[in-house]
Amino acid sequence: MPPCPVVIIGAGLAGLSCALRLQERRIECVLLEASDAPGGRVRTDLIDGFRLDRGFQVLLTAYPRTQHVIDYGTLKLRRFLPGALIRFRGRFHTLADPIRHPASALPTLLAQVGTLGDKWRVLRLRDRVCGPPLQEVLERPETSTLVELKKMGFSARFIAGFFKPFLAGIFLETQLTTSSRKFEFVFRMFSLGHAALPEFGMQAIPEQMALRLRPDMLRLNSRVKQVDGATVYPAAGDPITAQQVVIATEHTEALRLLGQNANDPSASVTCMYFAASASPVAGPWLVLNGEESGPINNLCVPSQVQNSYAGPEGNSLISVTILDPLYQERPDLEEAVRSQLAEWYGDAVLNWRHLRTYRIPNAIPLQEAPLLTPVHKPVKLGERLFICGDHTGIASIEGAIASGIRAADALSGQ
Ligand SMILES: Cc1cc2nc3c(=O)[nH]c(=O)nc-3n(C[C@H](O)[C@H](O)[C@H](O)COP(=O)(O)OP(=O)(O)OC[C@H]3O[C@@H](n4cnc5c(N)ncnc54)[C@H](O)[C@@H]3O)c2cc1C
Q1: Per-residue exposure over 370-408, b if at least 16 CB sit within 10 Å of its own CB, e if not
Q2: Which helix (H) or strand (E) holds 59?
Q3: Ligand 1 centre from 289 Cα, in Å?
Q4: Cβ–ligand 1 contact at 393 (below 6 Å)
Q5: Rounded mean pLDDT of the chain?
Q6: Is the same domain home to 253 and 270?
Q7: Domain limits at 28?
Q8: Is there a single domain that holds both residue 280 and residue 357?
Q9: Which atom from ligand 1 is nearest to the alpha carbon of 404?
Q10: Interior CA angle at 323 toward 65 and 128, to 5°?
């Protein structure tokens, strides 16, 4: 490969956003990606005509940087309803944003999952996280999410029945030890925008980004085995001497490339997909397990949000997320999931066809307090070496995209 001004290692969202920013600034760069497609952790498979995201994920439309980088119109986004159905004490309760979904205001008020005081506190929480500028919210003293929720006065029942399954589905950990800063950021995003899916699956997001790059900039199946200063050693082929290098891989891999033998603690998740002749859920709701028992944390029917996720003959696609590490390791996991689903939806579940199970070991970094003080980690490691990725900010689609921009700006002296 001829000498290249900038080499970016990894074409996940962070590497792609870095490359796009450099392209805007007319700085030559090349992206080396180990796998067969861009996107990193945001990939979608087409299985038997169903569209399966590799782990249930959503785009939060209010993400401040993302909405400027991604053309939402081309993605043809469709939304989940602003709220959730909560399995609690043997039946489903509706808990929705009464302002954006007035039809659910009364059921929300009556839902046994929390007291009237809890529901009033949610409205206050909304004001607390949406009122001030984002920077001010992110600079508040940091503690764990659980401690913060208790400080705000939420009842134990409401924390266990609503906040735990809701936030665990985002943090991918069930004890809510994740930083209160991530909690407040995420709650703000859910309150100001919508949780949405692109028409052709989550992978449409990185694909859109990759399509805007010049075709020769992205090199797939190009694993890098080592970085030494600004010299990059691909697994196959000659070393590349670059003027500057950006490491945009997962954190543990970044540390390995830098010659440090350390593991960044991360969360794992298992996502199981089923096909059914009819949807068990009436509408594009997220379903949360508020009962603190069984393998399921949350469930949804992506085909209720986007038709293109549905299989042939309009079959429904059901996505089930499992977080409890003990359940994730069980060899009879599918049986345990089906048994809980049958309690919820009856014998029809016996006819659901298992499509695929994704076990994702290092899904996102665990970001416990005080790891988000400061929220943004430095992206400049040396005169010629830069780093980006979700681990340098609040781990999310937004965190990854924003970090790529920060690295490109640091590199180009902006
Ligand atoms: C199951 C799941 C659900 C999630 N849900 C949400 C959600 O709902 N909303 C949200 O905002 N976020 C969600 N996230 C988080 C979000 O997807 C990630 O934070 C983000 O995609 C990380 O992007 P990244 O570019 O930092 O890293 P990655 O996507 O991991 O990209 C790193 C890239 O580097 C490549 N690479 C690694 N090593 C090498 C090497 N040696 N040489 C060359 N290339 C290499 C990898 O192949 C990969 O393509 C979820 C994540 C998972 C896994």
Answers
A1: ebbeebebebebeeebbbbbbbbbbbbbbbbbbbbbbbb
A2: strand 59-60
A3: 26
A4: no
A5: 96
A6: no
A7: 4-43+203-264+368-411
A8: yes
A9: 25
A10: 45
Cβ–Cβ under 8 Å, residues 23 and 8: no
* Residue bearing the CA closest to ligand 1, atom 32: 249
For 280-335, how does the pLDDT look when each residue is reduced to its tens digit (9 = 90+)? 999 999 999 999 999 999 999 999 999 999 988 889 999 999 999 999 999 999 99
Say yes or no: 393 and 344 in one domain.
no
How does residue 2 score in pLDDT terms, banded at 50, 70 and 90? low
Run of H or E including 358: strand 353-365
Which atom of ligand 1 has the smallest separation from the CA of 54? 1
CA of 31 to the centre of ligand 1 (A): 15
Q: Determine whether the shortest distance from the Cβ of 353 to ligand 1 is under 6 A.
A: no
Number of domains in the chain: 2
Element (H, E) at 209: helix 204-211
Task: Please tell me the distance between residue 41's alpha carbon and the centre of ligand 1 in angstroms.
Answer: 3
Tell how far the Cα of 367 is from the centroid of ligand 1, in angstroms: 15
Residues 125-147: tens digit of each pLDDT: 999 999 999 999 999 999 999 99
Nearest-CA residue for atom 37 of ligand 1? 249
Q: Do 27 and 89 belong together in one domain? A: no
In a shared domain, residues 120 and 186? yes
Tens digits of per-residue pLDDT, 26-71?
999 999 999 999 999 999 999 999 999 999 999 999 999 999 999 9
